[in-house]
Write a structure and sequence with these properties.
This protein has 182 residues and is an alpha+beta fold. It is built from 3 helices and 12 strands; from the N terminus they run βαβββββαβαβββββ. It has helices at residues 25-32, 100-112, 129-134, and strands spanning 17-20, 53-59, 62-72, 74-76, 79-80, 83-91, 119-124, 138-139, 144-146, 153-154, 158-163, 175-177. The protein has a 7-stranded mixed beta sheet with strand order 1-2-3-6-7-11-8. It has a 5-stranded mixed beta sheet with strand order 5-4-12-9-10, with no helix packed on it.
Length: 182
């Protein structure tokens, strides 16, 4: 996903976010096309968890934006610190720059706040850090280790967090995601 404006005009009706019953490879292709690496992260060589909860925006019957959530086990400074992982954020290339990422991420985070954990967590490519910062996310200041089939590795993508509850501040110490990334 990028936040590059396109020349496509936004619909006159304000788009609304809906909870999706499912999100398959077909729905992902509906948004991003059939490219081999739609998120630009294949070079990282990581295995990923599927999201469990999905939010999307449809325009004229076509799915044009998505964000997924998954509760994940995290350890920060040696203490168990559950989080809600955000991932699979996608906006159709012809509709980027019209606020759809903000809408779908905001709706997903509103739901994440009902799940209990104090923190939202995501991984993104460096060019997307500024977009997520505009959406209220902060970079995690230390390397983050994540589980992989062959054992833990340092996450090569940027790790970001956002508070899910008032007063939540990121704790100090080493960070380890005790699962595959989401």
């Amino acid at each position: 996903m990028t936040d590059n404006p396109s020349s496509a005009a936004p619909s006159s009706a304000s788009p609304s976010v809906v909870r999706l019953a499912r999100y398959t490879a077909t729905e992902q292709s509906e948004i991003l096309g059939d490219g081999a690496d739609p998120f630009g992260v294949a070079d990282a060589g990581l295995s990923w968890l599927p999201k469990e909860e999905h939010f999307g925006i449809r325009r004229d019957g076509r799915l044009v934006a998505h964000a997924g959530l998954l509760r994940v086990p995290l350890s920060v400074g040696g203490a168990a610190t559950p989080a809600v992982g955000l991932g699979g954020v996608a906006v159709a290339p012809d509709l980027r720059g019209h606020g759809l990422a903000r809408l779908v991420v905001t709706a997903a985070l509103a739901h994440a706040r009902t799940l209990g954990p104090r923190y939202g967590l995501l991984f993104c490519r460096p060019p997307l850090v500024a977009l997520y910062q505009r959406l209220g996310w902060h970079t995690v200041p230390v390397d983050v280790r994540v589980e992989q089939p062959a054992g833990p590795v340092v996450m090569p993508l940027r790790t970001m967090w956002t508070p899910l509850h008032d007063g939540a501040a990121w704790p100090a110490g080493p960070v380890r995601l005790l699962s595959l990334p989401m």
